[in-house]
Amino acid sequence: MISIIITAFKEVESVYRAILKFRPQLHIGDEILVVAPDKETEEVCKSIKGVRYIKDPGVGKPAALNIAFREAKGDILVLTDGDVYPNQYAVRELTKFFAHSQKVGAVSGRPMSISPRTKMLGYWSHLLVDMADKMRRRCTKERESMVCTGYLYAISRRAIEGMNMPEDILSDDAYISYYIENKGFKILYSAGAQVFVKYPSTFSDWIKQKARSTGGYTQLEQLGVAPKNPMRGLKQEAKEIITIFKYAKNLKEFTWTGMLVLARIYLWLRIYYERRIKQKSFEETWTRIETTK
Fold first, then answer.
1. Which of 68, 44, 73, 40 is nearest to 54 (CA)?
2. Section 81-94 average pLDDT
3. Dmax (CA) of the chain
4. Integer Rg of the chain from CA
5. Which of 113, 158, 200, 218 is the most exposed place for a label (fewest CB within 10 A)?
6. Per-domain boundaries in the chain
7. Quick count: other Cβ atoms within 10 Å of Cβ 133?
């Protein structure tokens, strides 16, 4: 049995779209759960037959996922967000690996940017998702530590047995991935399971989003959860500098790539200050990114 778990907050139209995209991919006995704290999302779920709405306390995604894990009935859990949507083969492409081996604990999907490449931040999103695709392919091939994308991934219930995720975790996808790997399970990658994502269109929102997601890796290192050679990190990004400049197709994109390098340096300095010096709280760091909705 498969349980689709959609976490959301006041994303009525996109949640509705996500549900309609998932429904044709399921079989009798499978389920869709939407976990959200707001009344608007609850009303949408009630209007669609067969969708289970679960109210969460509104204190963040980790808490919402902990509730969803207890409520879901499936042996395989497909996790996604309310502001993205999958391709028509996503569920099949994610779940087929679990039938091959009981050692498979999770399978990551592949984010696809729907932001315009003709604008700088849109170009950054295309570059970063394509670099992540390349990195996950390599990690799978070389059996290196890998983090699933929080936008779309599937996990085996056996692989998270006994897990109670701290509610102040910034990168829940990284925490779950590391938990699964630390239990001896494999994490694989399915490029055919695509999830379409709108990325930030303002620099301030871009910084907020990246400070939350990338800063979460620093948090996990401090907690001793992250492996010695994580998929993400300042050293890993430094190794890819030449590669990312090759991604550019013209002078404008080459210039934008240089701006991205500067932005990432600023981001890492900010993360170091916020996480190690100022020690910002979960509530201060986890902010809603409006331009991705």
1. 68
2. 96
3. 53
4. 18
5. 158
6. 84-292
7. 16
Encoding tokens for residue 103?
A: 């050692």
Confidence of residue 281 (pLDDT cuts 50, 70, 90): low
Burial (Cβ within 10 Å: 0-12, 13-18, ≥19) of residue 137: middle
**Distances 218 to 157, 170, 175, 224, 272 between C-alpha atoms, Å:** 27, 10, 11, 10, 8
Whether residue 266 contacts residue 274, with contact meaning beta carbons closer than 8 Å, is answered with: no
Q: Tokens for 43, please give them.
A: 């009303």
Residue found under tokens 């090759």: 246
Q: Is the dihedral of CA 246, 252, 258, 264 positive or negative?
A: negative
Could you tell me the fold of the domain covering 84-292? Spore Coat Polysaccharide Biosynthesis Protein SpsA; Chain A (3.90.550)
Which residues have CB under 8 Å from 6's CB, separation 6+? Answer: 15, 18, 19, 22, 32, 33, 34, 35, 80, 81, 82
* pLDDT 10s digits, 178-236: 999 999 999 999 999 999 999 999 999 998 888 777 766 677 776 766 655 555 555 66
Phi, psi angle pair for 233, to nearest 5°: 160, 165
Question: Is 8:41 a contact under the CB 8 Å cutoff?
Answer: yes
| Residue showing tokens 């929080």 | 150
Q: Which residues pair with 108 in a beta bridge?
A: 153, 189
Write down the pTM of the prediction: 0.88
Helix ranges (DSSP H) in the chain: 12-22, 39-46, 61-71, 90-95, 120-142, 172-182, 203-223, 234-239, 241-247, 251-272, 282-285
